[in-house]
Amino acid sequence: PALLALATAVFITSLTETLPAGLLPAMSADLHVSESATGQTVTVYAIGTALTAIPLSALTAGWRRKRLLLTSMAGFAVANTVTALSSDYALTMAARFVAGVAAGLAWALLAGYARRLAPAHLQGRAIAIAMSGIPLALSLGVPA
């Protein structure tokens, strides 16, 4: 059950990264910008993840992991709620960046949790199961 919860968190954070690609017409109409500008919501999420995942992991190394993971996922949920409700392009882009930051930190934490849930000889398998959310999100979750 714990590995399934981790895989679900990975699935949701991965799905959220690329989801706008399938919703470009609707999002661009709501945001009153072109589809290509709306497509940058995927880019800004990825930038938030790429620029901050490792530094945040290092900066928070001494923090309690459970509280940090819960805070990260709460920030992720708030940022995605703002994205869903926003009709302002700048606010949407800022929320997507924050969601990317939260997801990047969560991914680093989730892999560590998966490793600690398993005995030494099964740790690689546990990480693989937890991270199975990534290919599942990319293959099943993104709308056509």
UniProtKB/TrEMBL annotation:
Pfam families tied to this protein? MFS_1
Q: Where in the cell is it found?
A: Cell membrane
User: What is one GO cellular-component annotation here?
Assistant: plasma membrane
Q: What is its main location?
A: membrane
Q: Which domain of life is it from?
A: Bacteria
Q: Keyword Cell membrane: yes or no?
A: yes
Could you tell me which residue ranges the Major facilitator superfamily (MFS) profile domain spans?
A: 2-144
- Please give, as recorded in its UniProt entry, the membrane topology of this protein: Multi-pass membrane protein
Report a single Gene Ontology molecular function: transmembrane transporter activity
Which parts pass through the membrane? 42-61, 68-87, 93-114, 126-143
Q: Which InterPro entries match?
A: MFS, MFS_dom, MFS_Efflux_Transporters, MFS_trans_sf
UniProt keywords, alphabetically: Cell membrane, Membrane, Transmembrane, Transmembrane helix
> Could you identify this protein by its name?
MFS transporter
Organism ancestry? Bacteria, Bacillati, Actinomycetota, Actinomycetes, Kitasatosporales
